[in-house]
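This is your field. Please look over both lines of this record.
***
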Amino acid sequence: MIKLDQFLKLLGIAGTGGQAKLMIINGDVKVNGTVETRRGRKLVSSDQVTVAGQIFKVEDVIE
């Protein structure tokens, strides 16, 4: 498992934890098609994260 904010940093979508937090709080991030506002949301390999229309599969990153 990985936290949503850490996932965004790992992918390079957010340069810092602060940027990731703002993106999440502003509603710019979806998990499995639903806006997610909890930066500590734990992601599992079957989750998909959408940012600016781009979809990222968690399984491609954490496995």
Notes: The beta strands are 2-3, 29-31, 34-35, 42-43, 48-51, 54-57. The radius of gyration is 10 Å. The helical segments are 4-11, 17-25, 59-62. The longest helix spans residues 17-25.
